[in-house]
Write a structure and sequence with these properties.
Order of helices and strands: EHEHEHEHHEHHEEHEEHEEHEHHH
Distance between the termini: 48 Å
Strand content: 15-25%
Radius of gyration: 20 Å
Length: about 350
């Protein structure tokens, strides 16, 4: 008899650490963690099972299918934006191909146990593509349906997978004679820049923010690859995890769309720098803009409109700009490097 399970892909990443910890705290005991890297023992101990392997491995997914009855998928596995630009073909295979296979698996699971599998998908502001700095500076809060012209492979992958998820949720095999109502329940959040105090940055283009903080706390020099007045929306990891769980728990009938913006605060790189200097006056942070990476950041909105998430499922961040630094980032990162 198959065991019930909540599947978390990309479990060893920044968000995987936070999500598994929260789910374990809430008494969820059926967690199955999947990652191409070995699962950290700290989170492995909180899971029913840990699977080391590639989401592109069909035999691996078949084995998971045969062993578990999956009711919820948190699909966190991805090649992030900076790395994806160096290996776009690999990024497409992992980000788009891997998501497609998991969506297919979720549909099969839904058909087997007679109700839709919840498929939680973290997307990104990389799905947006403004034409440049001047337009960005003159544009207000961007809604989900605006400026969907990504300029990176990662952003293209995320936007495409949003469309795939909506297809599998609402239109799967719509012309088939034997089409059934057992699609999936696809729910997606377009995250802004993520900042974690627990894990180190892992290759995102917005990672200059956490990289500055970790460098200052560890006494390392840092050259920030964007210009000082570069502005992006950000969120700290606890709020990101809260958002995923809150959207997962929302009644389906309350959700008017499949993808939602969320945000907490918007800051320039220099504002982050100045806040860091208040805590670490000796921090050696310089601005050494990289023209190509700057162009990517300039295609992403300075602020996003998250009114739909607030209206449909009650989204509200716990950490504003001041609380993010004073209550979460600074004390935890100081503790990380104090030894």
């Amino acid at each position: 008899m198959r065991q019930t399970a909540t599947l978390i892909t990309g479990a060893s990443g920044e968000m995987g650490h936070g999500l598994i910890g929260r789910l374990a705290e809430e008494g969820i005991e059926d967690l199955v963690a999947l990652d191409i890297r070995p699962i950290d023992q700290r989170i492995g101990n909180q899971c029913k099972a840990c699977v080391n392997g590639d989401i592109l491995d069909e035999r691996l997914l078949e084995r998971i299918q045969s062993e578990y009855e999956i009711h919820t998928v948190y699909h966190l596995a991805a090649l992030l934006s900076t790395r994806a630009e160096f290996t776009p073909d690999a990024a497409h295979r992992v980000n788009a191909g891997g998501t497609l296979r998991l969506l297919q698996m979720a549909v099969e699971q839904s058909q087997w146990h007679g109700r839709p599998v919840k498929f939680m998908f973290p997307s990104s502001i990389a799905a947006y593509g403004l034409p440049g700095r001047e337009v960005k500076q003159g544009t207000g809060r961007v809604r989900e349906t605006e400026w969907n012209f990504p300029t990176t492979m990662y952003g293209c992958n995320k936007l495409y997978c949003e469309h795939l998820g909506r297809y599998y949720a609402n239109h799967y095999r719509q012309l088939a004679v034997d089409s059934s109502s057992h699609g999936i329940d696809f729910r997606c959040i377009r995250f802004p820049g993520l900042i974690s105090a627990v894990t180190l940055p892992s290759g995102g283009t917005t990672d200059y923010a956490p990289e500055m903080i970790h460098a200052a706390a560890s006494g390392q020099k840092y050259g920030c690859f964007v210009v000082p007045d570069t502005r992006l929306p950000f969120i700290v990891m606890p709020d990101a995890v809260n958002a995923l769980l809150q959207l997962q728990e929302a009644p389906r009938e309350n959700l008017r769309q499949t993808e939602y913006n969320i945000s907490s605060f918007s800051m320039t790189a220099d504002e982050i720098h100045q806040r860091i200097l208040e805590e670490w006056p000796q921090a050696e942070i310089d601005f050494k803009p990289d023209r190509k990476r700057q162009a990517i950041v300039d295609s992403w909105p300075a602020e996003v409109d998250d009114s739909a998430a607030r209206a449909d499922w009650g989204w509200a961040p716990r950490y504003d700009k001041e609380a993010a630094f004073s209550q979460y980032l600074i004390p935890r990162i100081k503790s990380r490097y104090s030894g």
